[in-house]
Amino acid sequence: MPETTERVCVPRAVFVQYPFGRQLGVVGDYAGQRLICEDMAALLEEAQAPNAYRHLPYEWPEPPEATKWRPDVPPPIFSVRQGQEGGHNLLDDFKDEERAAYTDSGR
Amino acid sequence: MPIERVDGFYFHPTSRERVLAQRHADPAKTPWTPMAKPLAECTVTLVSTAGIFMKDDVSYDYERERREGTWGDPTHREIPKSAGQDDVEYSHLHVDTSFMAEDRNVSWPVDVFLDFEREGKIGALAETLYSIMGYIPNFNPLVKRTAPLMIEKMKAEGVDAAFLYPV
């Protein structure tokens, strides 16, 4: 997702408007999968400075409403979110038990 | 009409508010390592976030994630490049990995890179490839411990570049 990657800031990234789980293409389309890998390799060789982002022109063959990417069983975070309406900040609940330790030690 | 700018919310519109609320890093601080030699002379590796692990290896800790939905396993798994399509599990709980189980190259293009190696487009595909399970809200262990472990192994294998494939 460019909206996330451009916030994080990375040296090089290629974006393609394909669904989660199949970001290189449909099953069995080796030529299409390879094309995106070649686009990535080209950016690796051509980029001259960080934050080098390239948007690829390829279109997914199905409309989004007909494209499956979610798992059959909802992930555990779904039940957490459903219990937290009204602007509750989920970040407050993230369990990063090591964050404080790293912060305290200055790392 | 060809896409000019990718819409990251095209398949996941309900994530818009959460993603746009994320703070921006400073682009002036983005790390940069220029390519020191042509790709055809480079040893490269692959990194996936699809929760891939060898069938004889330990799974990611999904039991804890099921107990604590805001926690994700921050560790990594190593996968030999010789491992085949069916030698591994594709296990991310947040994304349908059944397509990868049919054809890993939809998100884990090992066969593409093996061809790149045979054709001389890359110098070599490293012996070790890597996966994490990409749902890791508790990211400090990933940054402080897991990533250095992967980098240490990559350096030991002479890796010049890593291709990352977020699932």
Task: Provide a compact summary of the structure.
The complex is a heterodimer of chains A (107) and B (167). Chain A contains 4 helices and 2 strands; from the N terminus they run αβαβαα.
What key attributes describe this structure?
heterodimer, A: 107 residues, alpha+beta, 4 helices, disordered C terminus, B: 167 residues, alpha/beta, 5-stranded mixed β-sheet, two-stranded antiparallel ribbon, 26% helix, globular
What does this structure look like?
The complex is a heterodimer of chains A (107) and B (167). Chain A is α+β, with helices and mostly antiparallel strands. Chain A has one domain. Chain A is built from 4 helices and 2 strands. Chain A has helices spanning 2-8, 30-46, 76-82, 99-104; strands at residues 12-17, 52-59. In chain A, strands 1-2 form a two-stranded parallel ribbon. Chain A is flat. By secondary structure, chain B is an alpha/beta fold. Chain B has one domain. Chain B is built from 5 helices and 7 strands, in the order H-E-E-H-E-E-H-H-E-E-H-E. Chain B has helices at 16-20, 62-67, 98-102, 110-119, 140-156, and strands at residues 43-48, 52-54, 76-80, 88-90, 124-125, 128-132, 161-165. In chain B, strands 1, 3, 5, 6 and 7 form a 5-stranded mixed β-sheet that branches. Chain B has a two-stranded antiparallel sheet with strand order 2-4. In chain B, 35% of the residues are buried. The interface between A and B is large, with 64 and 69 residues.
